[in-house]
Amino acid sequence: MARSRLFLRLLSSVLLLVVLFSSANYLLTVPMVKEKAYQIELDASRTILDNVYVTVSKIRSNLDEQRASIVENFKAEMRTKVSLAAGYIEYVLGRVERGEITRVEADRLIYDGLRAFKSSADDYIWLTNYESVLLSHPHPELAGDTQDEHGREVVPIIVDKARREGEGYHTYPWPRSGADRTAQKMSYFRHLPKHGLIVGTGSFLDDIDAVVERRMQAAVEDLRQALRNIRIARTGYVFIFDSSRRMIIHPNANIEGTAFGTLKDPATDEYISEALMKAAREDRYRRYLWDKPSDPNNYAYEKISWVRHVDGLDWYIASSVYEEELRSSSVVLGNRLFAVSLAVMALGGGLGYLGARRLARPLRQLADTAAQVRAGNLDARSGIVRNDEIGDLAVTFDAMIQRVKDDIATLDSRVKERTAALEEAERLKAVGQLAGGLAHDFNNLLTIILGNLAVARERFANLSELHAYLEPAQRASRRGADITARLLAFARRQPLKPQPVDVHALIQEMAVLLSRSLPASIAIATPGPDEPVWAVADPTQLENALVNLSLNSRDAMPDGGTLTIAVQPRSEADDAGFDEAPVPGRYIEIRVGDTGRGFAPGAADRAFEPFFTTKALGSGLGLSMVYGFVKQSGGYIRIESAAGRGTTVTLLLPQAEAPAPVVADAPAEPVPAVNWHGMLALVVEDDADVRLVMRQQLMDFGLSVIEAESGDEAMELIEQLDDLRLVVSDVVMPGVSGLTLARHLRATRPDVQVILVSGFSTEAIDDGEGLVILGKPWEKCDLATAIRLPCTA
Fewer beta carbons within 10 angstroms: which end of the chain, N or C? Predict the structure, then answer.
């Protein structure tokens, strides 16, 4: 196969296409994938930090709740002690009333009994009378010596409050037992009006704070153990410091409790602690240079940190990860894609080799057989057995050789028969005549071979390697159809057909269909005016947009809710929040709202981006398609959303006047077929292959065809061809366009029918002049219909 030019061309074409495709795919895909992978890793570090932030916020909230619970427990304990003490006083004084003991004995029993309630130096029951004299207290000498923050005596204030309110709490400074300082104390007291006494007890608030602090330290220790198990990328971690730049939690226990406020970023000479605190205020990540455990004191490695501030604790929670670690996964992914590209190239090259070999080998075999026949070996045969066009060609070729051999044998027999009767000159003349007949037969047989080869080429027309051997019309039409199909499949775009649409009626009809597909837990409301509301839009695309928004609302209400699709005419008032300021005018406002969970913070700003989605499954193109339709329709769009309070999408479309009632037209008269047999047609096309296709098809319809490769050449031919009856012209050509040529013919030769051919959307051509437009690529039946011939295909 190494000496087969066809094989080498096919194989080189396949290898070139495979290399180009794989290289383009790698160059276009890998950078995007690597950047996306890096962004995912970066977002993951922020997500980890956000989770830690939520955990710390819960700890702070729990501590606040625990402090409130501890205070309530202290209060309940004080009320219990005072209740017991009051019951004891009532019991002793009751004995005095019954005459069992004297008042002096009762006072002694009361004072001794109240002292028995004491469990510690700071935990006791005190008793005072209306004159603020402490009748029972471990330190009665302090009465009158302690003042509150306003300089007032504490005991008289309590006495006055107890006589007015009966019971209550009071916070005041009081000396701690065995300490040379006072502390804030909270006392509970109760008035015993029958006996003119006030009894109470108290607890120091710093005892409460000590309990809370112990629980806080326990929570911090639990948090410390949890954070030490967190890893971002390979060696990244989360740490916590406070506003005084003191490290609270760090994976390295030696760093905890130390201050790091003096460390600077070598790249900016800025204090790193200040930069991290600033990043928390600005809600963005911070880059700075740091060292590595493997390379200490060499601050040359770039790190990235996200930072969040916890207000109640005045803590800063920060993530820390090396930039190169974030990019490591994207590098690995890029290397794998490169390996896949190499594998694709190897596989494509192998398949191309096998395909080219399967196609070129039998053709090479046919050529070798033909060479043997030309050298005189009429016993040579191709020996090819295949069930395709090449097999048919081989059978025909072998039959041709056998026929030639038989003809030669017949020729020899005839020559021998006539040799005896003819002289040498006559014999030579006879041989010449027979050779001419053989040449005629050969030409007939070669025609059969070429016909079979054309069929074989049609069978393999989808192989780009054989483009140079394919019939030009097949190559051009297949290429054009393939390009058109790809463009339509990728863009999913069709020309809009704007027209007046009764939006309210369209919504009412759509709501009936939606009610059958949405869950029963979702109610649909369609408020709007009673009269028709007309907007300028493509009705099909408008319905698709509203259905898209309704399905988004359904996904936002998994537990049910209300979907509202409202419509009303409006002016340019209340224009805030639209994608751009609406041009003053009359519009139809369509509001699609739900009671769902709404967009997360920041997600609404990116809703029109393409993929951007917040769903687990989804593409993220829904809103971008709605946005494109609204902008193509000359409208505007706005999203209003709040987390947990639903979303409303507002569309503004240009208002339309109510259309006039449609009167049914009379049935059109059938257009009679035209007999084009023998008539003259002119094909105007700058692409030679397209001209060849058009010419052949018109000739199949019985026309005589003349070609022109430009509008300028066609203008000259028109003036010279008096019997011209049909012109088929491309629209876009160098020089005079097809549209200009058609208008010239309408003005000067109205008897000539004009067919315009365009590779663009036919809606882009103004056919108000009654021109017949044929779009590329066309089928033979399309051309027949355009020139008013019945289609027989």
Answer: C
